[in-house]
Amino acid sequence: MSDLIRLTNLTVTYERHPAVHHVSGAFASGSLTAIAGPNGAGKSTLLKAIVGELRPAEGSIDRGALTRNDFGYLPQAADINRRFPISVADTVMLGAWKNSGAFGRFSRQDADRARDALERVGLSGFERRHIGSLSAGQFQRVLFARLLLQDAQVILLDEPFTAIDQRTTRDLLSIVLRWHKEGRTVIAVLHDFDQVRAHFPETLLIARELVGWGPTQSIMSSANLIKARAMAERWDEAADACLPEDETASDDLARQEPAR
Ligand code: ADP
Ligand code: MG
Fold first, then answer.
1. Which residue from 30, 37, 102, 202 lies 20 to 30 Å from 221 (Cα-Cα)?
2. Are 161 and 136 contained in the same domain?
């Protein structure tokens, strides 16, 4: 498999504080990768950088010939405003934006495809419901229907099954596995390690810095998981990024001795 997205010494910061630090490696075309790591490890930040919502402070992301439209992105539930007054059908059809253009009108065909997508996620007949009236599981199904409609080559999911009932998790996981079979590249932040081991061939384990990236079997060892937790606990929130203009210290010193 060839590399589709390559990260080279990637550092992403919030006001100079690194959330993702010196990460290098590549997602192969057609790979199915879990991103795992402790809370605050930089998992969501990494996804946002890959889709282009955040810019690297240092290093780079090579997406080859991919454009923004080739990425389907499901943010973490906490980042989504469900009070926005919009129907289930319209929410799904937003996935068709790349076809209609932001100012275009939804076509009859879009509406048909939205209905098909809702059927595939088990929500036939929900078209006119307000998204605020749905359960967490039903809303996640709507967002998956939108991804189905979007038909992207690369799909990034941020904790798609957190706080979601078991049946919905099973149904949506089967959609993820089908995307993989179809040859799409899928990257999902997950906290359920059993799920990762059972279904995700590749794992990227991160605690701000990379702990390991490769076949799940070898990456999700207890030694690596202990190391990830220790790295997360040791991390100095206040540390500045060791950016090129920061000439006061080497990389390691900048991280261990942030006080100036
Ligand atoms: P994870 O998804 O692994 O829990 P995040 O990528 O959300 O981790 O966060 C990594 C670090 O970046 C955390 O310390 C978090 O507090 C910080 N962070 C995340 N988002 C922001 C933001 N918008 N502004 C400032 N700091 C942020
Ligand atoms: Mg997160």
1. 30
2. no
